[in-house]
Design goal:
The protein is an alpha+beta fold. The protein is built from nine helices and five strands, in the order E-E-E-H-E-E-H-H-H-H-H-H-H-H.
Length: 205
Protein backbone atom coordinates (compact mmCIF):
# COMPACT_ATOMS: atom_id res chain seq x y z
CA UNK A 1 0.00 0.00 0.00
CA UNK A 2 1.28 3.45 -0.91
CA UNK A 3 0.81 5.91 1.96
CA UNK A 4 2.78 8.90 0.73
CA UNK A 5 4.32 10.20 -2.50
CA UNK A 6 7.02 12.83 -2.91
CA UNK A 7 7.80 13.74 -6.49
CA UNK A 8 7.61 16.25 -9.31
CA UNK A 9 4.25 17.51 -10.53
CA UNK A 10 4.26 16.37 -14.17
CA UNK A 11 0.62 17.00 -15.11
CA UNK A 12 -2.53 18.40 -13.51
CA UNK A 13 -5.86 17.36 -14.98
CA UNK A 14 -9.48 18.00 -14.07
CA UNK A 15 -9.69 15.09 -11.61
CA UNK A 16 -6.14 13.85 -11.11
CA UNK A 17 -2.47 14.71 -11.14
CA UNK A 18 0.55 12.86 -12.48
CA UNK A 19 3.37 12.74 -9.95
CA UNK A 20 6.80 11.74 -11.28
CA UNK A 21 8.90 9.82 -8.76
CA UNK A 22 12.32 9.10 -10.28
CA UNK A 23 10.83 8.52 -13.73
CA UNK A 24 7.82 6.52 -12.50
CA UNK A 25 4.55 8.38 -13.04
CA UNK A 26 1.77 7.90 -10.49
CA UNK A 27 -1.76 8.96 -11.45
CA UNK A 28 -3.34 10.33 -8.27
CA UNK A 29 -7.04 11.18 -8.04
CA UNK A 30 -7.55 14.44 -6.11
CA UNK A 31 -10.34 16.82 -5.26
CA UNK A 32 -10.54 20.17 -7.03
CA UNK A 33 -9.36 22.00 -3.92
CA UNK A 34 -6.24 19.84 -3.68
CA UNK A 35 -5.48 20.17 -7.39
CA UNK A 36 -5.72 23.95 -7.17
CA UNK A 37 -3.23 24.02 -4.29
CA UNK A 38 -0.57 21.81 -5.89
CA UNK A 39 2.79 23.40 -6.72
CA UNK A 40 3.36 24.49 -10.35
CA UNK A 41 4.40 21.93 -12.96
CA UNK A 42 7.98 20.83 -12.51
CA UNK A 43 8.08 21.53 -8.77
CA UNK A 44 8.06 19.00 -5.94
CA UNK A 45 4.87 17.97 -4.18
CA UNK A 46 4.19 15.79 -1.15
CA UNK A 47 0.85 13.96 -1.15
CA UNK A 48 -0.66 11.75 1.53
CA UNK A 49 -2.08 8.75 -0.32
CA UNK A 50 -5.02 6.43 0.23
CA UNK A 51 -4.68 3.31 -1.92
CA UNK A 52 -7.89 1.52 -2.86
CA UNK A 53 -8.66 -1.49 -5.02
CA UNK A 54 -11.81 -2.57 -6.83
CA UNK A 55 -12.50 -5.18 -9.50
CA UNK A 56 -13.95 -2.55 -11.81
CA UNK A 57 -11.33 0.19 -11.50
CA UNK A 58 -8.32 -1.81 -10.28
CA UNK A 59 -5.88 0.09 -8.07
CA UNK A 60 -6.58 3.78 -7.57
CA UNK A 61 -4.61 6.34 -5.60
CA UNK A 62 -6.32 9.26 -3.85
CA UNK A 63 -4.10 12.17 -2.86
CA UNK A 64 -4.36 14.79 -0.10
CA UNK A 65 -2.14 17.63 1.05
CA UNK A 66 -2.57 16.87 4.77
CA UNK A 67 -3.07 13.85 7.00
CA UNK A 68 -6.29 15.42 8.31
CA UNK A 69 -7.80 15.45 4.83
CA UNK A 70 -6.87 11.82 4.23
CA UNK A 71 -8.32 10.73 7.60
CA UNK A 72 -11.53 12.65 6.98
CA UNK A 73 -11.83 11.07 3.52
CA UNK A 74 -11.72 7.62 5.14
CA UNK A 75 -14.30 8.61 7.77
CA UNK A 76 -16.64 9.95 5.10
CA UNK A 77 -16.35 6.76 3.04
CA UNK A 78 -17.57 4.72 6.00
CA UNK A 79 -20.93 6.51 5.79
CA UNK A 80 -23.60 4.70 3.76
CA UNK A 81 -24.07 6.29 0.37
CA UNK A 82 -20.76 8.17 0.38
CA UNK A 83 -18.32 6.95 -2.25
CA UNK A 84 -14.86 8.31 -3.07
CA UNK A 85 -16.22 10.95 -5.47
CA UNK A 86 -18.73 12.30 -2.94
CA UNK A 87 -16.13 12.28 -0.17
CA UNK A 88 -13.76 14.35 -2.32
CA UNK A 89 -16.60 16.73 -3.18
CA UNK A 90 -17.37 17.31 0.50
CA UNK A 91 -13.71 18.08 1.20
CA UNK A 92 -13.71 20.49 -1.74
CA UNK A 93 -16.27 22.73 -0.01
CA UNK A 94 -15.48 21.96 3.64
CA UNK A 95 -11.93 21.30 4.87
CA UNK A 96 -11.77 18.97 7.91
CA UNK A 97 -12.11 21.63 10.62
CA UNK A 98 -15.03 23.33 8.85
CA UNK A 99 -16.74 19.97 8.23
CA UNK A 100 -16.46 19.06 11.92
CA UNK A 101 -17.93 22.44 12.86
CA UNK A 102 -20.81 22.00 10.38
CA UNK A 103 -21.54 18.52 11.75
CA UNK A 104 -21.50 19.76 15.34
CA UNK A 105 -24.20 22.33 14.56
CA UNK A 106 -26.02 19.93 12.18
CA UNK A 107 -25.62 22.33 9.26
CA UNK A 108 -26.73 20.03 6.46
CA UNK A 109 -27.06 22.99 4.07
CA UNK A 110 -23.32 23.62 4.25
CA UNK A 111 -22.57 19.97 3.51
CA UNK A 112 -25.13 19.86 0.69
CA UNK A 113 -23.07 22.45 -1.19
CA UNK A 114 -20.83 19.56 -2.22
CA UNK A 115 -21.43 18.40 -5.78
CA UNK A 116 -23.47 15.18 -5.87
CA UNK A 117 -24.53 15.43 -2.22
CA UNK A 118 -28.27 15.92 -1.81
CA UNK A 119 -30.15 17.05 1.33
CA UNK A 120 -30.78 13.50 2.57
CA UNK A 121 -27.17 12.44 2.22
CA UNK A 122 -25.99 15.73 3.74
CA UNK A 123 -28.21 15.09 6.76
CA UNK A 124 -26.82 11.57 7.10
CA UNK A 125 -23.25 12.88 6.95
CA UNK A 126 -23.95 15.55 9.58
CA UNK A 127 -25.63 13.01 11.85
CA UNK A 128 -22.96 10.32 11.48
CA UNK A 129 -20.07 12.71 12.10
CA UNK A 130 -21.73 14.25 15.14
CA UNK A 131 -22.29 10.85 16.76
CA UNK A 132 -18.71 9.68 16.31
CA UNK A 133 -16.25 10.08 19.19
CA UNK A 134 -14.06 13.12 18.75
CA UNK A 135 -10.97 10.93 18.54
CA UNK A 136 -12.33 9.47 15.31
CA UNK A 137 -12.19 12.89 13.69
CA UNK A 138 -9.04 14.87 12.86
CA UNK A 139 -7.67 16.48 15.99
CA UNK A 140 -7.02 19.79 14.18
CA UNK A 141 -10.73 20.09 13.44
CA UNK A 142 -11.28 20.96 17.10
CA UNK A 143 -8.20 23.10 17.68
CA UNK A 144 -8.92 26.66 16.49
CA UNK A 145 -5.95 28.14 14.75
CA UNK A 146 -4.10 24.84 14.64
CA UNK A 147 -1.85 24.42 11.66
CA UNK A 148 -2.87 21.32 9.71
CA UNK A 149 0.58 21.19 8.15
CA UNK A 150 2.31 19.86 11.26
CA UNK A 151 5.53 17.91 10.64
CA UNK A 152 4.92 14.29 9.72
CA UNK A 153 7.35 11.65 10.98
CA UNK A 154 9.05 10.29 7.87
CA UNK A 155 8.77 6.55 7.23
CA UNK A 156 11.93 4.63 6.41
CA UNK A 157 13.35 4.97 2.92
CA UNK A 158 13.26 1.20 2.41
CA UNK A 159 9.64 1.04 3.55
CA UNK A 160 8.63 3.77 1.11
CA UNK A 161 10.51 2.05 -1.70
CA UNK A 162 8.84 -1.29 -0.98
CA UNK A 163 5.42 0.40 -0.94
CA UNK A 164 6.15 2.08 -4.27
CA UNK A 165 7.10 -1.22 -5.92
CA UNK A 166 3.99 -2.91 -4.55
CA UNK A 167 1.97 -0.05 -5.99
CA UNK A 168 3.50 -0.85 -9.38
CA UNK A 169 2.26 -4.43 -9.15
CA UNK A 170 5.39 -6.15 -7.80
CA UNK A 171 4.60 -8.89 -5.27
CA UNK A 172 5.53 -7.87 -1.73
CA UNK A 173 8.16 -10.61 -1.12
CA UNK A 174 9.92 -9.75 -4.40
CA UNK A 175 9.64 -6.02 -3.69
CA UNK A 176 11.31 -6.48 -0.30
CA UNK A 177 14.11 -8.59 -1.80
CA UNK A 178 14.77 -6.02 -4.53
CA UNK A 179 14.82 -3.09 -2.10
CA UNK A 180 17.00 -4.90 0.44
CA UNK A 181 19.48 -5.74 -2.32
CA UNK A 182 19.44 -2.12 -3.49
CA UNK A 183 19.99 -0.88 0.06
CA UNK A 184 23.00 -3.16 0.48
CA UNK A 185 24.54 -1.83 -2.74
CA UNK A 186 23.80 1.85 -2.08
CA UNK A 187 24.35 1.93 1.67
CA UNK A 188 22.19 2.81 4.67
CA UNK A 189 22.05 6.51 3.75
CA UNK A 190 20.37 5.84 0.39
CA UNK A 191 17.22 7.88 -0.19
CA UNK A 192 13.88 6.50 -1.35
CA UNK A 193 14.12 7.63 -5.03
CA UNK A 194 17.56 6.03 -5.41
CA UNK A 195 16.32 2.78 -3.87
CA UNK A 196 13.31 2.71 -6.18
CA UNK A 197 15.46 3.35 -9.23
CA UNK A 198 18.01 0.68 -8.32
CA UNK A 199 15.27 -1.86 -7.55
CA UNK A 200 13.52 -1.18 -10.87
CA UNK A 201 16.80 -1.58 -12.73
CA UNK A 202 17.33 -4.93 -11.04
CA UNK A 203 13.76 -5.96 -11.83
CA UNK A 204 14.30 -5.17 -15.51
CA UNK A 205 17.34 -7.44 -15.81
Amino acid sequence: MIGRLRGTVAEIGEEDALIDVMGVGYVVRCGARTLSRLPPLGEEALLHIETQWSEQAGMRLYGFLTRDERRTFLILKEIQGVGPKAALSVLDVLPPAELAAAASRQDKAAIARAQGVGPKLALRIATELKDKPLTDLPVSAFAPGADAREPVPAPSATGEAVAALIGLGVAEPQARRLVEAAAQRLGEAALTPALIKAALQELGR
